[in-house]
Design goal:
six-stranded antiparallel barrel, SH3 type barrels, single chain, Elongation Factor Tu (Ef-tu), domain 3, globular, alpha/beta, five-stranded parallel beta sheet, Rossmann fold
């Protein structure tokens, strides 16, 4: 079977490619060029750089597979960077990795794979996919290594995409992946993982938004929940729901960001109890099964990457859903994803647009 592997230049995708070769697959490595790097300027973060593309090519040579670099600058700017900037300007907190996976990697690379005569696209994600014979559908599950699990970022995949997806390292731990790479002499065996947003230099996302947005940045005020003005600010893109650090406010009790109104450039702060809420509404909902449940679903719901999933009732609406938690959750943040799980299985998810206490 011919399989295209999305190779980032890191150890996970490299081992994914090597495992497939070992299993007898006809493997082709593809790497995505996401920025114009000809000038050699550091206008991007610490991954997806020229060095990463070079590492991917060297890894492919070691494994003995053909390797190509594909230019994805236009779709990456359209679906990831533009969304990132517009979300922050709207007072929301985006997740660029999810948009990159769904709108660029799986949407576009699958087309490129088909053009190369490949039946599947493999990545180095720590998730697992299997076909459930009883239900006659593909099932997406968390990776074996819970500390590296990336299921939260892949809730938007469809049945058609899962049918062509492979995640060779999903049933391995990170240490097992590195051990395999060392045992096979792969040059990226001990390469550090990147935890930054790939296109943001030095992690300074606010400066990136300002540079991309130009004159769209507006100063505003910080108010408390009683409406009193406590300070001014240089733009709502500096804030996220639940934020405490960096507010530069003096108060008798710790204050947290409770609301962001981009239209009036107003940021509201209050005590910790103000960010504890019971419900949220999500839009752009994708159900992995491809079928919208006929009624409310009991699920564990994860509202950000490092959030411990909490029990909730998910009630489907037209292209949306209402999530009511059994217990109040801290800092339910518009722009983040609410992902629904049944144990380790991903049921679906959507984008948080609002939170409430009812």
């Amino acid at each position: 079977m011919r399989t295209v592997v999305a190779m980032s230049g890191g150890v996970d995708s490299t081992v994914a490619a090597a495992l497939l070769v070992e299993a007898g697959h006809d493997v082709i490595g593809l790497s995505m060029q996401l920025y114009d790097q000809r000038a050699g300027e550091a206008v991007f973060g610490s991954c997806c750089t020229l060095d990463d593309l070079h590492d991917a090519r060297r890894a492919a040579q070691q494994i003995g597979i053909p390797h190509y670099i594909v230019n994805f600058e236009a779709p990456f700017r359209e679906h990831v960077i533009a969304n990132f900037v517009s979300e922050y300007l709207a007072g929301r907190t985006p997740i660029p990795c999810t948009h990159c996976n769904s709108d660029v990697k799986f949407a576009t690379l699958l087309d490129r794979a088909a053009g190369l005569g490949a039946e599947r696209l493999a990545t180095g994600h720590y998730v697992q996919v299997a076909f459930d014979e009883a239900r006659r559908q593909y099932v997406l599950r968390r990776g074996r290594d819970q500390s590296k699990d990336q299921a939260y970022f892949l809730f938007s995949l469809s049945q058609a995409q899962l049918a062509q997806a492979a995640f060779p390292v999903g049933d391995l731990t990170k240490e097992a992946v590195r051990d395999y790479a060392r045992a096979h002499g792969l040059l990226v065996a001990d390469k550090r993982d990147s935890y930054e947003i790939c296109f943001v230099p030095n992690g300074d996302y606010a400066a990136f938004v300002e540079r991309e947005a130009g004159g769209a940045i507006r100063p505003g005020v910080v108010r408390d929940t009683a409406g009193r003005v406590l300070a001014t600010h240089d733009g709502v893109h500096h804030f996220t729901i639940g934020q405490r650090k960096g507010l530069r406010l003096s108060a008798a009790v710790p204050l947290y960001v409770t609301a962001i109104d981009a239209a009036s450039a107003t940021v509201t702060v209050g005590p910790r109890a103000s960010i504890e809420q019971r419900a949220c509404r999500v839009t752009g909902v994708n159900w992995i099964s491809g079928v919208v449940p006929p009624g409310p679903v009991r699920a564990s719901v994860q509202i950000r990457h490092r959030h411990v999933p909490a029990w909730a009732t998910v009630t489907p609406e037209a292209g949306a859903a209402r999530v009511v938690f059994a217990d109040a959750q801290s800092a339910i943040t518009p722009g983040q994803a609410a992902v629904f799980f049944d144990g380790d299985e991903v049921l679906g998810g959507g984008w948080i647009v609002s939170a409430a206490n009812d």
